[in-house]
Amino acid sequence: MLPFFLRDPLSTDVSIAFEPPSRRYLFGTDKFGRDIFSRCVSAARIDLVVGFSIAIAAMFFGVIIGLVAGASGGRIDETVMRLTDLVLAFPGFVLALVLVAVIGDSIFKVSVAVTVGFIPYFVRLIRSEVLLQRELDYVDAAKLVGNNPVRLTLVHILPNAVGSSIGQATLVAGWSINTVAGLAFLGVGIRPPTAEWGVMVAEGANDIATGFWWTSLAPGVLIVITSLAFHLIGDQLSEKTI
Amino acid sequence: MLKVDGLSVGIGDQYNSILNNVCFSVDEGEIIGLVGESGSGKTMLSLALMGLLPKPVKLSSGSIIVDGQELVVNESKRVERTPKQLAMVFQNPRNALNPTMRVGLQVRRALVVNQKLGKKEAKLKSLKFMTDVGLPDPEQISKKYPHQLSGGMCQRVVIAMALGCRPRILIADEPTTGLDVTIQAQIFDLIRSVRDETGCSVIFISHDLAAVSELCDRVAVLYRGQLMEMTTRDRLFKNSLHPYTKLLISSVNLNVKPKVMDRGSDYFPNGCRFAHRCPEAVEICVEMPKLRELNTVHSISCHLMNGNTK
């Protein structure tokens, strides 16, 4: 028998199905006899990577769009803001659900769907910061020295406007882990037998009633801990930057 | 050097609500003081010259001539940027520097963008300018961020940046309000030595009469966008003729309680803008007085000087 940290998260063995948590099977096993601990660890790869990528992608596009809107003003600004209103009008989760239904459900496509819902938060944040910064004297000073508008925006305004988005990005990383797991729980997005926390909670949900409580417990607790951790970090970061 | 003629600035229909028909000129190497209370249009005048008027505010008429060349007013009714001739020192030095950029780089960028210098040359020049404005150890200071420097040092950096533009006219908009008195005196010395070395003219905006009396050659008094009086420093403080100037100067003296009328600000909607508070107002003050040259060094806009008395 391999030690608990070396077991294959996908290998099944019905002879050890529903083993309760023990020293041999740290978090127990599920109905196919897969080791829940190794599945949880392997799922962290997907969940954390997906969470970070969504946050970074949403921030990247959000910053670009928000910067353009804030710096150009006028009709472009108005259009962009109404579009973000449009996206924000849907609850993020429902939007992701619909998008996944439309574009398909590979891990990448799920990430794209969730990202779209988070972009407007960054657009609004950056835009408001840009509007604030561009009234300050140093922007006028830089303008007088002869910097062109593009340089002014990229070199002078952007570094001063981007700070609060970093805290926001950490919060979004937490939310997106929740969202991805939630989608998987509902059976859209990431599918079994892939080891993913939401998938594991969904699979185990049926077995709780028959007394096998451990099948959903470990992945569920991990989702809570991870998103809580991101939120706490995000909160601290936002406080520091304001 | 600089000649401003009939400059009016306003918002929308009220074409002259902010500045009304302001005329003055600045000679080479002269330090002009621009005084007035809050809201008198001092800063708007400087912003109009720099082409930095905020969005709804428009340059409705008048011309600005620098070195015999009229500044171009573009279709959005603002002066096209003319960084080669005009440079500005801002009110609060900390706000005038980008907080996320090392100060040395900011001075260097000013040289690269404005003077089209190469990187190496700009670096040497920037260190020279920073030495010129009296910053000790410019090598070290140029590696610092604005929040690591004191207010006085920040203001020196801002002045170094302005010098980097090799201005013909330096506009200093209350450059010492954020600084304490000793640093104020040092900044005045610096402005004077800048003037002596580069031969540029300085427009010094302030509400501090003591500062103006120390630094300036000539003084212009502004009230609610109207140029009240302009004359040499000595004449202004010893022999001012305009009722507003007299009151303004006497307000500094704690022993004298100035007598000011209060008739409500719309008492004379089209007249002299000081009429509603003027203790010497007469009937003709319902008309706007023209700025009149009493002699070569003294202009005034007041009906009382046109032979109308009580």
Structural descriptors:
heterodimer; A: 242 residues; mainly alpha; MetI-like fold; 73% helix; B: alpha/beta; four-stranded antiparallel sheet
| Poorly predicted ranges of chain B | none
Q: Approximately how much beta-strand content do the residues of chain B carry?
A: 15-25%
Instruction: Give the CATH level 1 class of chain A.
Output: Mainly Alpha
Largest interface: A-B, 16 and 25 residues
- What is the arithmetic mean of pLDDT of chain A? 86
Q: Characterize the biggest β-sheet of chain A.
A: none
Counting DSSP E segments of at least 2 residues, the number of strands of chain A comes to 0
Q: Specify the helix fraction band of chain A.
A: over 70%
Largest sheet of chain B: 8 strands, mixed
The oligomeric state of the chains shown is heterodimer
Under CATH, the homologous superfamily of chain A reads: MetI-like
Terminal CA distance of chain A reads 54 Å
Identify the overall geometry of chain A. Answer: elongated
Coarse morphology of chain B: globular
Strand content of chain A: under 5%
Based on the coordinates given, report the CATH architecture of chain A: Orthogonal Bundle
- Report the span from N to C terminus of chain B: 39 Å
Work out the helix count of chain B: 9
Characterise the protein shown here.
The complex is a heterodimer of chains A (242) and B (310). In chain A, 73% of the residues lie in helices and 0% in strands. With 242 residues, chain A is mainly α. Chain A has a single domain, classed as MetI-like (MetI-like fold). In chain A, helix 8 crosses helix 9. The longest helix of chain A is centred in the first third of the chain and has 37 residues. Chain A is elongated and about 75 Å long. The mean pLDDT of chain A is 86. Chain B is α/β, with parallel strands linked by helices and 310 residues long. Among the domains of chain B are: 73 residues, no CATH class; 67 residues, no CATH class. Chain B has an eight-stranded mixed beta sheet with strand order 6-7-8-3-9-10-12-11, with helices on both faces. A four-stranded antiparallel beta sheet of chain B has the order 2-1-4-5, with helices on one face. Chain B is globular. The two termini of chain B are 39 Å apart. Classes of the chains: A mainly alpha (242), B alpha/beta (310). The interface between A and B is medium-sized, with 16 and 25 residues.
